[in-house]
Amino acid sequence: MLNFTTLPPLSLYIHYPWCAQKCPYCDFNSHAVPVSADAEQRDKDYINALINDLEHELPAIWGRTVQTIFIGGGTPSLIQPEALQQLLSQIRARVKLSPMAEITMEANPGTVDQSKFTEFYDAGINRLSMGIQSFDDQLLKKIGRIHDSQQARLAIEQAKMSGFDNINLDLMYALPGQTLKSALDDVQQAIDFDTSHLSHYQLTLEPNTLFASQPPELPDDDLSYEMQRVCQQLLADTGFKHYEVSAYAKPGKQCRHNLNYWQFGDYLGIGAGAHGKISDAAQQTITRRWKEKHPQQYLETHAGLEKFPQNSTKVTNSFMIGGEQQLSRHDIGFEFMLNSSLLTDGFDSRLFFAQTGLPIIQIEKGLKKAVALGLIEWHQHHIRPTERGLQYLNELQELFL
To answer: Which of 214, 221, 232, 255 has a Cα-to-Cα distance from 69 of 20 to 30 A?
Structure first.
């Protein structure tokens, strides 16, 4: 039995599953758009399914305020601006959205122009996350990106001219054939654009990707670690706070949506393959839900839902084709630490009770082991991963399994 006294902050994640083409390193739920696809009809059908999805989630969050929205993918910047405007308008009509809500959209430089950025901004998007990955054309080709460095630079400038002042740039390091100088050059160029946030993460060969079956030659572990170290130092020297394992921000510009994940907040997930996590004060439970993964099956599921009354048991059963799981006390402790261990500053131990309804004793055994191994520091109410803990993050997280 949990013991919630308050409920965690609430976010909304929206998944847009299509891309211009699938990158060889990507293991996200993304699908290349057929050349013959009717973009306008595709977006119309998908927006209708998203709203239907949201409506069936609403009873779980009545009265709660949505603090952040994140539209991820896939490549959400492929969406038609009119469809995006309709989506956000329909969301505002159905949920209590904070007037200060952070609303983020992921964007690929090869899919946007000045007018599209302006329409996204006018629709209510107030934060962009742009998948740059590198400013080196040869490296971009090696990792299968559809844009070049000139398009990347132009997209950043156009976004700023459209009014966006809260922009994240995604960069990868340890790319095939990358040198230490090239990795530093990428970070320096990103810094020179004077954006507020930078994600900097290592290319890894994920299962079920093209790179996993046809692996490119990557920098060795020593060089990869050196790239990480010197780039982190450069970011620190230029005013970026390293607040999460792969995230860096200017003061006050941390991604609020992602912070809610790492602090074990609640979130609805709508769209093909989307995941959600919702706490229920009346039932004293935490439940995870996930949606049908393939876009076509997701669309067919929601087309079928419209045939039944909204309060029908048949609707609920059909709607949960993806699945749901009520978390056990052990699951809750593990998932809290899985997320919070990513935060470089750690967390106040009292947050554990506030977000889980459980006493800190639930994870005390793992915490003591982590302290003994030098992976965590625990001083009174403050718990944070050490530099060694961040370096051996998998080992740290496994202590709570």
So the answer is: 232
Structure-token match 């950025």, residue found: 117
How far apart (Å, rounded) are the C-alpha atoms in residues 346 and 332?
Answer: 17
CA distance 380 to 372: 16
Where b means 16+ CB within 10 Å and e means fewer, 280-295 reads beeeebbebbbbbbeb
Mark 332-353 as b/e (b = at least 16 C-beta within 10 Å).
bbbbbbbbbbbbbebbebebbb
Structure tokens at 193: 């654009």
Nearest to 211 by CA among 21, 22, 23, 24: 24
- State how far the Cα of 354 lies from the Cα of 39, in Å rounded to an integer: 44
Strand ranges in 281-354 using DSSP code E only, listed in sequence order = 285-290, 323-326, 347-348
Query: Tell me, which fold does domain 329-398 have in CATH?
Result: Arc Repressor Mutant, subunit A (1.10.10)
3-state secondary structure of 311: coil
**In this structure, are residues 37 and 45 in contact, taking their beta carbons and an 8 Å threshold?**
no
Calpha distance 295→297 (Å, rounded):
6
CATH number of 10-262: 3.20.20.70
Express each pLDDT in 211-267 by its tens digit. 999 999 999 999 999 999 999 999 999 999 999 999 999 999 999 999 999 999 999
Confidence of residue 302 (pLDDT cuts 50, 70, 90): confident
Confidence of residue 5 (pLDDT cuts 50, 70, 90): confident
Predicted TM-score (pTM) of this structure: 0.94
Residue identified by tokens 């559809």 is: 146
Longest dimension (CA), the chain: 61
Residue 30: both structure tokens together: 């993304």
Alpha carbons 9 and 246: distance in angstroms, whole number:
23
Q: Where are the domains of the chain?
A: 10-262, 329-398
Cα–Cα distance for residue pair 312/303, rounded to 1 Å: 15
